Automatic annotation (TrEMBL):
Transmembrane segments: none annotated. The keyword Ribonucleoprotein does not apply. It comes from Lapidilactobacillus concavus DSM 17758. Pfam families: Flavodoxin_1 (PF00258). GO terms for molecular function: FMN binding; oxidoreductase activity, acting on NAD(P)H. InterPro entries: Flavodoxin (IPR050619), Flavodoxin/NO_synth (IPR008254), Flavoprotein-like_sf (IPR029039). Its cofactor is FMN. Belongs to the flavodoxin family. This is Flavodoxin-like domain-containing protein. Residues 45-184 form the Flavodoxin-like domain. Low-potential electron donor to a number of redox enzymes.
Amino acid sequence: MGDTRLTTTNVLSNHFLVAKQCEAFVYVKIKLVNTNGGFVMSKKIGIVYASMSGRNQRVAEYLQAQLAKMGQPATLDEISQFDSQKLLEDDAFIVVSYTYHDGQVPDEALDFFDDLQTLDLTGKVYALAGSSSIEHEHFGRALDYLDQQLAHLGALRATAVLKINLDADRADLARLDAFCRQLIDFMAFQQQQLV
Ligand SMILES: Cc1cc2nc3c(=O)[nH]c(=O)nc-3n(C[C@H](O)[C@H](O)[C@H](O)COP(=O)(O)O)c2cc1C
């Protein structure tokens, strides 16, 4: 059997190697990582958040920091100041939002929510996270409404909707780390499908 190991420590993207082994072509998928152990990507991710008392802003900032550690920069915008058209420039986007009133999308996020319908989001990758409160009947339902809307518009969710009760604790931070990794993996998978 041939030796298929790579010795290069910092390779730039995912590839498929085609090796002829045992008189058959064998596809060897190699996950290529940089020296920090993070994926090297040149994709664009946008994070848009709604936050009244600061929890969801902190979640959004944490996501931005974790993605950066994984080698993936992301922009950060407050939802009421955000031009939804910018979503079209991103390869993927994350919406971070609380839930308000009786299980509703926050008022300052309504324009964003409505504007989604005017965009062609077919095949666009998204992920949803947010802090709300289990004391309320419809825990984190704003995220469910966003999910329904985005799925209806043909966008592709990269990972499970992540709901946090009030302040993020250590377990929540671990879930947010996994959330970032799954988003990056999903984007890499999508890219491979296009090759
Ligand atoms: C008036 C009011 C209504 C709320 N309604 C809901 C609700 O229906 N469902 C829910 O899960 N959380 C509800 N919450 C909880 C907030 O979503 C939660 O406090 C969240 O962490 C706030 O995020 P922020 O600090 O980013 O503003 C409500 C909070 C307030 C003050």
